[in-house]
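Entry 14. Two folds queued back to back today. First construct below, sequence then C-alpha cells.
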Amino acid sequence: MTTRRIRGAAAAVVMAGAAAACSAPGGSGADGGASAESVVIGIPSEPDTLSPLLGYGKDGNSKIFDGLLARDAGMELKPALAKALPEITDGGRTYTYTLRDGVKFSDGEPLTADDVVFTYDTVLDGKTNNTAKSELDAIKDVRADGDDKVVFTLDYPYAAFAARTVLPVVPEHVAGGQDPNTGSFNTKPVGTGPYVLAGWSKGEKLTFKANPDYWGGAPKVKKLTMAIIADDDVRATRLRSGDLDGATLPPNLAATFEDDDGRKTYRATSYDFRAVTLPTGNPVAGDTAIRRALDLAVDRTTMVDKILDGAGRPAYGPLPVDDPWFARDVERAQDLDKAKSVLDKAGWKAGEDGIRAKDGRPARFTLYYPSGDKVRQDHALAYASDAKKAGVDVKVESATWEVIEPRMKHDAVLAGFGSTGDPDFGLYTLLHSTLAGDGFNNMALYDNPAVDKALDTGRRTQDPADRKAAYDTLQRELVKNPGYTFLTHIDHMYVLADRWKDLTTQTEPHEHGFASGPWWNIEDWRPAT
C-alpha cells in the first residue's frame, strides 16, 4: 500500500439526497473531533444479501460479523472468534478451534460452538443457494465439542483450509428458523461484529451503527454509511462537493484530486483482474485459434499505462506477476504477426474489409460491459481495437447486469475476478469444468482436463512443490487454450478525508469498496487530533 498526501481545498456542500446527515458528511466538527465519528463512503455497488449463508463476507472484513479467524494488514491469519489459530492433527485432516470467551451477538445472546456448526452445515447444504460452497469442498464433518470447541474433519488434507475459516459465523437462534435463501436474515442480519445494520435503502445506501458491546472494543467511528453510486463520474463529483468523506475511484478520477487539501489517496495492490470471457459454446469466441490470436493481439502494457494511469500490471493469467505462485515463463508481449499466423493456419482468412471468416462465418462476436463502469468500458474498447488489427470484429455493448447475466453463457463479457489468500481460492471457481456456467463461476464454461487435474492436485496435496508444479502447469495450459483473455491486474484507488491517523490497506480481492479500502478495519480507526 502506498499513500499520497493531496493539496488544495474542497467545499463542503449539502446535496439533496445525501447519504449522510444534514451537514457535510462527517458531522459539524471542524477539528476532526465530532466529525471523525461519522463516515460516508461512496461505493459502486451493494451486496445482494447480507447473509454469510449465501456468501456475504466469505473472504473476511464483514462489518456485521466475525469469522473464527481474520487477516491483518499484511494478510496474515490471526484469531478472531477463536482464541488462537487452529490445532491441526491427523496429517492435516482435523482442525480444532477453541472459541474466545464472552463473545455475544448484537442481540445479547452468547456465541457457542453450535452457531459455528450451524453456519458451516447450512452453507454446505445442497438446498442453500450459495455458489461459493465448492470452496468448502474439503469438509467431511463439523461438530461441536462442548460450548467452546469446534472440530472440522476433512475428506483430504487441504493446505489452505484455515484461511477458509474467515467465513462469518451467524446465530442459529435467529437464522435457524428461516429459509436461508429467502428469510429476513438476508436483509436484517445479527452478528458478533463491530457494527450493526441500522438501515438499508436498496440502491441508495446502507447505514451501520457501532456495536458498543463489541468484543474487540467499541469503535470510535460511531456511524458508517455506504452510499451506492454506480457511476464513477457521479461518485467523484459527490466526493468533490463534500457529500462524501471518501470513495473508491478509478485511477484517472482519483488523480483529479491531487490539488485538493485535506484528502489522501490510498493505493492498494490487488488480485483483481479484468478479462474477457470467451464462452466455449460461442462458435467464434470458443474457437481455440481465435482465443490464442486474441491473447497475442492485446497490448496489455498500453492498457495499464493509458487506462489505469500506471496503477496496475499486465495480466498474463489470473495470478498477478508479483504473486509467488505466478509462472515466470508465461509473460508475453503483443505479437500481431503471430496472432495473424495462428488465424491463417486455422483457416480464418481475411476478407476485403479486413475481417476474417471461416466456412462462411465471420470472426465476429459481441462483448458486453456493465453500464457506468468507465474502466471496463475503456478495456473493452481497447480490446476491440486490438482484436480488429488481427482481423477479429468485436462489437462492444454496454448493458445492466440484469441484461448481461442471461447472455453470459453465449456472449463475451468484460469481467472482473480475483481472490486473495491462496491460488485455489480464485482459480478453482474460475476454471474448473464442474462449475461451468454456475452463476458467475467459470463464466467461460471452460473445459480443459489438464487444468481440472492441476486444480484438483493444487487443492488436495499439501506438498508445496507439487502445488507449485500444478499451478505452473495450469498457467501454461491457459496460454495454449485461453478461455479468457486476461488483460490487467488493477490497483484499487481510494480518496478519503484526512481526519484519521495511521490508516492502511490490505492486498485486495476483486470484491472491494464495501469491505476493502482504507476502511477495511474502520473499527480500529482513531481521530487524527
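Second construct, same run, same settings:
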Amino acid sequence: MPRRHFIATVGAASLSAPAVSLATGPSAAAAPSSAPQTAPAGSPHALPYPTLHRPFAMPGAKDQDWTGALLVAEGEARFAVRIGLVTAQGQLLREKMTNYLWRIGPMAPDGAFRQVRVSTDDRTVMPAHLDALHEVITHPEQWEESAVADATAKLPQLQAKYEQTQHDKREIQVRYARTSDGCGLVGAVTALDDDTTVVLELGTPWGESAAFALDGQDLTGSAPGVLDASRTGHVRLSPTEPADTAGCYATLADLTSVATGGSGTPGTTLGALVYHLTKGRTLTFTARIGDRPQAGDTPEAHDIERALTAAAAHVDDTGLTGSGPVGRAADAVRNALSLNTNYDRDHQRNFVLWGWGGGGGLFTGWDSAFDAVDAALVSRPLALQHETDIFDAAAPPNQVPLTGPRYDQQNSGPMHAYAVWRLYTKFGDRTVLEKAYPHLVTFYDLLREWDTDGDGLLETPYFGDRIGGRGNHLGLDDSPVYADYHRIPKKGGSGDARDNTDLTDVALNSYYALFAETLAKMARVLGKRRDAARFAERYATIKRRLNARLWHAEKGLYLSRYLDGTWNEVVTPTVFYPLFAGIATQGRARTLIEDHLLNPEEFWGDYVIPSVARNDPTYCTGGPVHPRSEHFKFFERYGDGTAPEQWKGACWPPMNATVYDGIKRYGFDNVAGQFAARSTAMYLNAWDKENWFPESFDPEPGQSVMDAAVDTAWRTYSWSNAMAVQGLHELLCDNPWDGDPAALMFGSLSLPGTNTLANVELRGHTYTVSAGPRRTTLVRDGRTVFRATGARVAVRNFVLTRSGATFDVNADGPARVEVFPGSGAARGRGIPAGRSHVAL
C-alpha cells in the first residue's frame, strides 16, 4: 500500500514536529476560544468553553472504553476504535476493562495523548491477600478458630489461582496521539508478553447503524449522522502491517468467535483485525474520520512512533504537572481525570465519568460537584463542560419533575452551588453562574420541606431502614449518625415521597448555610440585589440558629440533635462541617481543631480523616469481631478486602475535601498543610502501588489487605482525586471565601519538602508555583511575579496590578517578600514571623 501521501493528508508537522502540532490546547477538535461557539440544542446560553467541532477524534471518551477511541463526523456520525486482548482461556477483553487496568498515563484531558496498560490479570488475588492468610495461620492465638480454619482452607486454593494467573498473564500497552487537525489518530499497541493476541476493532460506540468493509489491509466504515441523517460520516482504520486474520462480521459474537480461534458469520456490523504478537512487538496504526471516504495512505511505523513520543512529552509541557512529595500528585490527578473524561452523546460535550468507571453516563448527583472542582485544576474546558452538562441534564425518572442535579437525597444543590462558584472564582466567566443560578434557587427553596418543626434548621430526610444504615444524603449513605432517628410523616412538600425525621443534622445544616451564602455571592455578581439580601439574611439566620442549638459546650463539638433536645453523640468528621460553611466562631473553630482534629485518640494520625472517630466502638471493626493481629488488623477473611467498612473508619475523599476547605477557610495554615499532606500521601500510596484512585482509603497505613479500601469495582473512582487536590490547592488555588473572588492563594507552611505545581489556569493566566522551606515563587505566564525568601509563607488575597500587589501573608519566620509588577521596578520588604498585610 502506498504510504507517502498520508503525511500530506494529516499535515507533515503532525508527524515530525513537536507534539504541540498534535494536541493539547485549542485544536480542530476543541475550537479556539476565539472561534464561533455554538450552544448544544436546548441550551439558551452561550458557552464559556471551546465546543467540539466536527469532525474530531478523541481517545477514550466512552464509558470504560479505556483502550478505545471515539471518532465523530458532521451530523454526529459516530465510530469507535477498540483494542481488545484475548486471554489464555480464550476470552476477549474489549470493553468494561476497569478491572484489567494496570497502568495509566501520561494522558491529556482533551485526548491529545493517551497511554494505558491492560492485563488479563484482574488482580482479584494479590500477594497481600496471600500474606494476610499466612498471618492468620502463623498467629492463630490472635484469631478465632473459625478464621484460622477458613484461612487454612483458602490459602492453597488462592495460591494456586494466583500462580496460574501469573503464568497465563498477557499484558499490552496502548498509546494514542491525535493529529494536528483533530480529525485523525495515530496509535500503537505493544505486547509485553509472548503469545499475545490483540484485536483492532472498528465499530460504533453506542450501537448506531453503520456499514463496515475491508479495503486491502484496512477497515473502512460509513454511517448516517445521528442528529442529521443526511450527513454521512466516513472512517478508515489503517494498520502499518497486514493482520493475521481480517474481516467484517454480522454480530459481536461472530467477531469474538473469530478472535478467539473460531469462525463467524460475515457481515457489515463491525470489523476486526486480529494480530498474534510476540513479546516486545509493536503494532502501529492510524484512524481518520471525515465527510468523504478517507484515503488509504498510511505513514511508516517509525513516523508514528516519533509522533507518539513527541505527544507524550508534550503532555507535561502544557498540562497540569508538578514535583515534590505532594506536587507530583498533579500528574496523577491529571492522568486520572483524563482517563475518566467521557463524551455526553446527548449534549455533545465532555464530562467526568462518575464513580468506578461505570456510572452509566453523566451522574447529576452530589458526587459530580467534586469532579467539577477537581477538573478545574486540570482543564478549564473540561470543568466548564462538565458543570454545564449537569444543568442541562434531565431529571431522573423518580425525581420531582425538575431539571438538573437532584436537590433531595443527595442534596446536590449545596455542593453544586459551591462547585459553580469555584468555577467562577477560578475562571471569572459569568456564563456558568447565569446557567446554574435559577436551578439552584429552586433547589434551595425546596429544601425547606425537611424542616420538620419549622425552626429554620433542617432535619435529615427519612430514607427507610436498610442493612448497614439509612443516611443516604450528602453521600453519607450508612453513617452511624443516622442509625437512631425516628420517622415523622411529612405534611405537604414538593412531591418527594420521603418523610421527615426528628434529627437536626449538623452536616445538612452546614451545607444549607453554605448554599445560602453561595447564592448571596452569586446574586451580587449577577446584579440581583434583592436576592442577595434574601440569601445573606438566610445565611445569617441559619448560622445563628445552628450555633445556638447544635453546639455541645461540654464536649466542645457541633453535634446533631433530636427534636426532644437529646444529643446524638456519634462523632464523625461532620462535626467539622460548620467550618466549611463559615458558621463557627473563631474560638469554637480553634477548639474543634486543637481538641478534636489534632487529637490522635479521635481523628489525627498518619492518615486522616477516618469516617468515624478512632475511639468510637465501631471504628474499623469490619464486622462483629475486632481482630487484634499486629498485621492486617482489619482483615477477617478472604472476600472482606474492603474492611474497614466505609462508615466504620475508612477515609473518604469528599469528607477530607470538606474538612480541608474548612481548616483553610479559618486560616489554620499549618494544620491545613499537614492535613493536605496526609490526604495526598494516602492517594499516592494507592497510585504508586496499583495506579488506582479508589473511592475510600484505609485510615491505618499497612494494616489492611490492600492498603486502600477498594475492591475490583472501585479502582477508578472519579472523586478520589479530591484527596490529592487538597495538596495541590494548598500550593495554588482560587479564593472561594471572603475577599476579592479574583484573588489567589498560594504557598504552604507545612507541606513536606519543596513542591512545584505548573500549568494551572486561573482567571485567564497560566501559573506555576514553587514552595519550599526557604523560598516560594509564583510565575504568571512565564514571568516571576512574586518571591519570598528566608521562610515558608502562605499567601492569600493576592491581587496583582500593573503597578504593584496587595496580599495577606502568614510566615513561619522572618522573610523578605518581593513582587514584580507589569511596569516599574521590583518592590519588596521584610516581614516578621506570623501574619502580615502587605501592599507593595
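Quick look at the second one. The mean pLDDT is 87. The chain is about 30% helix and 20% strand.
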